[in-house]
Amino acid sequence: MLKIIPLLLLLCTFTTAATAQSGAISGTVLDSSTGNTVPGARISFRAALRTFVAHSDSEGRFVIGDVPDGTGYTLNASKDGMKSARVKATVTGGGSTSVTVSLTSRYLTLTSHNSGKAVLAGTEEPILWESGGITTLRIEFSINSGKDWLLIAEHVDADSGRYIWNVDDIPSPNYRIRLTDENDPSFSDESDADFGNSSAWVSEDTFIV
Predict the structure, then answer these.
(1) CA 36, CA 2: separation in Å to the nearest integer?
(2) Which has the closest alpha carbon to 100: 42, 29, 37?
(3) Of 20, 58, 67, 113, which shows the fewest CB atoms inside 10 Å?
(4) Of the candidates 143, 32, 140, 12, which has an alpha carbon nearest to the alpha carbon of residue 82?
(5) Where do the domains of the chain lie, and which CATH numbers do they carry?
C-alpha cells in the first residue's frame, strides 16, 4: 500500500499538467495620429510569474504564445518617440485573443500645474510637459480660469520638456497654464484645475476674478 501512494501522487501531477491550458495574444500596433501600422513596438506583460515580450513586425503585427488562461492581462506597448499605451486582454480555454494597440506619435501633455497647488510671485517655477511630433510651443497663463491668456514665452523647444517661469505678480486665485503647438494652434493642453498666486492672499478683495 505504501508503494501505491507515491504512484498516485505522480499520476495526479501528470494529470494536472495535461489539463493546464495555454493560448495566445495577437494584435496590431497602430499610430493613432495617422492610422498607420507601427513596426518595432515593444509589447510586454506579466502572467504566472513570467514576463512575456514581443515586438511588432514590419506590418505592425505581433503574436505572444504559450499564455496561460487569465482575465485582464495588462499589455504595455511602447516605442521611442511615441506615447506609450496599455490595453487589456483575456485568454480563456486555451484560445487566441486579438487586440489593437494605439500608440501616439503626436501628443502634448502638461504634467505640472494640474493639482491646484499655489505658486509664489517673483519665484522661478518650472513648467513641465511631455510631447512628441511637435517642434515649438507657445506658453501662456490665465488669471481667469482660461477665459483670457497672457504670454509667458513663444518659440520654446518642445523637446526640452520644461521652461522656467518667473511667476508674475498679478493677484488671482484662478491661474492656469496653457501649452500650444505653434504650428497648429488647435493642438494644446492646459491645467486641469485653477491654482492661486499666494502673493494675492492678502484679502479676498484683492483677487481678480
Answers:
(1) 66
(2) 29
(3) 58
(4) 32
(5) 23-103 (2.60.40.1120), 107-206 (2.60.40.10)
C-alpha cell at 206: 484683492
Determine contact, residues 200/171, Cβ cutoff 8 Å: yes
Q: How many residues does the chain have?
A: 209
Rounded Cα distance, 19 and 22, in Å: 10
pLDDT tens, 10-45? 444 444 444 457 899 999 999 998 999 999 999 999
The grid cell for 117 is 497647488
Q: In which order are the strands placed within the sheet that holds 22-31?
A: 61-68, 22-31, 96-103
| Bridge partner list, 91 | 70
159-190 pLDDT, tens per residue? 999 999 999 999 899 999 999 999 999 999 99
Locate 184 and state its grid cell: 497648429
Q: C-alpha angle 111/116/119, rounded to 5°?
A: 90
pTM of the prediction?
0.69
